[in-house]
Amino acid sequence: MTKIFCIANQKGGVGKTTTAVNLAAALANINQRVLLVDLDPQGNATMGAGINKAELKSSIYQVLLGMGELKDARLASESGKFDVLPANRDLAGAEVEMVELDHRESRLKTALASVVDNYDFVLIDCPPALSMLTLNGLCAAHGVIIPMQCEYYALEGLSDLVNTIKIVHAKLNPDLKIIGLLRVMFDPRMMLSQQVSLQLEEHFGDKVFKSIIPRNVRLAEAPSYGVPGVNFDAAAKGAQAYVEFGKELVQRIRNTAA
Ligand code: ATP
Ligand code: MG
């Protein structure tokens, strides 16, 4: 069955898009059929997958507002070997325009239904807010992957996100659960990183992925070439960590299904 996962954390700049793009590419490299959904008006996942957000004929904006079909907006990422439902700044207007519409929180879910059987994974890159767009992601998904930087303030925002996930689970989407927390931009030399990392393990136990993504400049450079980091420099430590994470995720899904 297709797995639909949101990459979410309402904090900005914590590595959501880097995780979404690199996980998509890592899964594609192990022969998984992947659709990457860019649910952020910044369009960073779109650009990171090598698609020019300024030249879109149609995008997720048209799809959410019922002005276009998903299959017409969908594009192929050649550098990543996965499909992309792209976004650009048009999407910023959707937040307001959707207020008028019926079933506004489930529009992405409805749109995905037409293509979901063509994929093993649908990964949704959420914007840095607990907004109507993120709510659409959470309503469409089976689970949430939460990238976290191991720093003092990281834990503060986490309870808001966990509460939101609980509410969506109770009221809108009984399928939704936390798949796991992924430690990203990790710097093992920092005592604080180690401490927060341990706190996460104590508090969330098995929900913390074993894979840890280190801070790695090659991952940060890759988006400007429109190539996912795992393909941009496969030998880099950051790339290898995302490859490991992809395998761990597949394994975790197999174990929970069994
Ligand atoms: P936003 O909330 O704005 O959508 P985000 O959570 O999607 O941000 P990213 O865009 O993935 O975060 O990452 C923020 C910045 O950190 C980017 O410049 C990215 O290249 C860089 N970055 C992400 N992960 C790493 C890493 N492991 N090592 C080094 N740089 C990283
Ligand atoms: Mg982002």
Write up this protein.
The structure is a single chain. With 258 residues, this protein is of the alpha/beta class. The chain has a single domain, classed as P-loop containing nucleotide triphosphate hydrolases (Rossmann fold, 3-Layer(aba) Sandwich), CATH 3.40.50.300. It has helices at 16-29, 44-48, 60-64, 70-73, 91-97, 107-112, 132-140, 154-171, 191-204, 217-221, 229-232, 237-257, and strands spanning 3-7, 34-38, 75-77, 82-85, 121-125, 143-149, 177-186, 208-214. Strands 3-4-2-5-1-6-7-8 form an 8-stranded mixed beta sheet, with helices on both faces. Helix 1 (16-29) packs across helix 12. The longest helix has 21 residues, at 237-257. The protein is globular and about 50 Å long. The two termini are 13 Å apart. The structure holds adenosine-5'-triphosphate and magnesium ion (MG). Magnesium ion binds next to helix 1. Residues 16-17, 40, 44, 125 line the site of magnesium ion (MG).
Question: Quick summary of this structure?
Answer:
The chain is of the alpha/beta class and 258 residues long. It has helices at residues 16-29, 44-48, 60-64, 70-73, 91-97, 107-112, 132-140, 154-171, 191-204, 217-221, 229-232, 237-257; strands spanning 3-7, 34-38, 75-77, 82-85, 121-125, 143-149, 177-186, 208-214.
